[in-house]
Specification:
It contains five helices and eight strands. With about 210 residues, the protein is an alpha+beta fold. The chain has one domain: Maf protein (Alpha-Beta Complex), CATH 3.90.950.10. The model has no long low-confidence stretch (mean pLDDT about 90).
């Protein structure tokens, strides 16, 4: 199924394409995608907002395809769950990722080790060509380290220490990260929902 990804983040796009390899979704990007203003309520709302926006843009361009969008964030215990849904806007709309990570470390400078627990959260939304929507959601738990480590990944990966691997997400190779990440878990739940829908359609067709 031809599916356009609602993102302009090249790191996120490559990760999503790798995660969905072998799935029914044939992923591509739409160069003219115009992202809508995001809200600050929750990940699921933002994912749906982006997916619906691109779906409308494709329809207006005469393109019949599905759309996949995600919204993710980092929640830190010591910060009461911040930066959360505002993770990509942390330290200001125009801040760079190094500056966002720097600010996070500044805010956690005096946080005791038992309050540095954190989790990555990801919500996905798939809008089918007919407008039907399917959701996905996943989380992965870790700890925010005291310094950046690793050169893989993107975003907050250099600070996110993943205990089962005894490394940060930026220290594990893409394939390993993609087996356990929040985005992988969200994709799994979304693909499960897609399979259930297809099985339902098949049963209905046999009736």
């Amino acid at each position: 199924m031809r599916t356009f990804v609602a993102t302009k983040n090249p790191g996120k796009l490559e990760e999503i394409k790798a995660i969905f390899t072998g799935s029914p979704l044939d992923l591509d990007i739409y160069p003219l995608y115009a992202p809508p203003p995001e809200g600050d309520a929750n990940y699921a709302d933002n994912a749906a907002l982006k997916a619906r926006a691109l779906h409308r843009q494709l329809q207006e361009a005469g393109i019949d395809a599905a759309v996949l969008a995600d919204d993710s964030g980092l929640e830190v215990d010591a910060l009461g769950g911040r930066p959360g849904v505002l993770s990509a806007r942390y330290a200001g709309e125009d801040a760079t990722w190094p500056r966002r990570r720097e600010r996070l470390l500044e805010e956690l400078a005096n946080a005791p080790s038992d309050q540095r627990a954190a989790k990555f959260c990801c919500a996905m939304a798939l809008v089918l060509p007919n407008g039907e929507e399917l959701p996905g959601y996943g989380e992965v738990e870790g700890v925010i380290g005291g310094e950046e480590r690793g050169s893989f990944g993107f975003g907050y990966d250099p600070l996110f220490f993943y205990p089962p691997a005894n490394r940060t997400f930026a220290e594990v190779e893409e394939e390993e990260k993609n087996r356990v990440s929040h985005r992988r878990r969200a994709a799994d739940t979304l693909l499960s929902a897609l399979r259930e829908r297809r099985h339902g359609d098949a049963r209905h067709g046999d009736a």
